[in-house]
Amino acid sequence: xxxxxxxxxxxxxxxxxxxxxxxxxxxxxxxxxxxxxxxxxxxxxxxxxxxxxxxxxxxxxxxxxxxxxxxxxxxxxxxxxxxxxxxxxxxxxxxxxxxxxxxxxxxxxxxxxxxxxxxxxxxxxxxxxxxxxxxxxxxxxxxxxxxxxxxxxxxxxxxxxxxxxxxxxxxxxxxxxxxxxxxxxxxxxxxxxxxxxxxxxxxxxxxxxxxxxxxxxxxxxxxxxxxxxxxxxxxxxxxxxxxxxxxxxxxxxxxxxxxxxxxxxxxxxxxxxxxxxxxxxxxxxxxxxxxxxxxxxxxxxxxxxxxxxxxxxxxxxxxxxxxxxxxxxxxxxxxxxxxxxxxxxxxxxxxxxxxx
Length: 356
Ligand SMILES: Nc1ncnc2c1ncn2[C@@H]1O[C@H](COP(=O)(O)OP(=O)(O)OP(=O)(O)O)[C@@H](O)[C@H]1O
Ligand SMILES: [Mg+2]
Known about the structure:
By secondary structure, the protein is an alpha/beta fold. The protein has helices at residues 60-67, 90-100, 108-111, 118-123, 133-146, 162-174, 192-207, 273-278; strands spanning 18-29, 32-44, 49-53, 75-80, 83-84, 101-104, 180-184, 212-216, 228-233, 236-247, 253-261, 285-289, 294-298.
């Protein structure tokens, strides 16, 4: 079969439910620009439950505000369930927020109206859905049941614990059968065992009710509770941890966490700090394309030689690699993007600024 050079390339994230492509959000505060999102790429498939982690100020809430239709990005593109978040008019935005997405915020008080019962809170968003009253009440009860809150359906938020309020909030978020639920630190105000219950409720929304779930958290331990954890650093996705199970030689099911560096669309990735420190990688590195991986070597020409170092020739075989610790085959390095053959060792003046 022949392949023509003009064969159309599939659109980035064509099959994904959530697509962020080079997303930028710049806040202007007086004369200062704050770049909260700096070219973030993210794909989330329908049916996934992912966690987004990152330090304070890394851009997590900014991302969620954009995806939930509350904020408009400065540049790039963002699409959720086919809705283009940069091109929605006011009416579209309202429909999107009412029926395509659901949210759970950190502050329990922001999620529920204090003078309505749990059941009434869950029924409220359905007022716009066209469902008849009896059907709305029945659906509210089903959702509260799924969140293990059926026995408290008549209570107001003030008569519920923080964790219970968050479980009702998840039922509210699910009321209109949204494609995706966004939760920003939903367990931030809770102790850890109550937080686990709320996570279990989100998992049930995902597994039993079919909602795609994107949850932002400070807590790196959540990676054991979701299929994929995406870490954001400086307004970009930096690493991902993917959880999978496998059966060992003795037939026992084991859970394995594979950590990946995220390769963005321009070919950039971030080498983890401990890897850089262990090999004293700085400024620029030498790359070597092997049959099934890419080698990354310290630039031995750039610093005063502590060991004899012959000038590197492209044809010379690389020095034997030293792994700083158990090497992770999923981590590799990316080349500068415009070089004709990005994997050749760079010329002395090339190839430095894509590896941050
Ligand atoms: N409305 C705003 N105006 C100006 N700057 C903002 C605004 N919102 C966020 N920022 C800035 O954008 C950056 C990202 O903020 P964001 O709230 O997204 O971080 P975060 O990862 O959610 O942090 P946290 O974990 O503390 O909630 C920060 O530097 C923040 O100060
Ligand atoms: Mg935040």
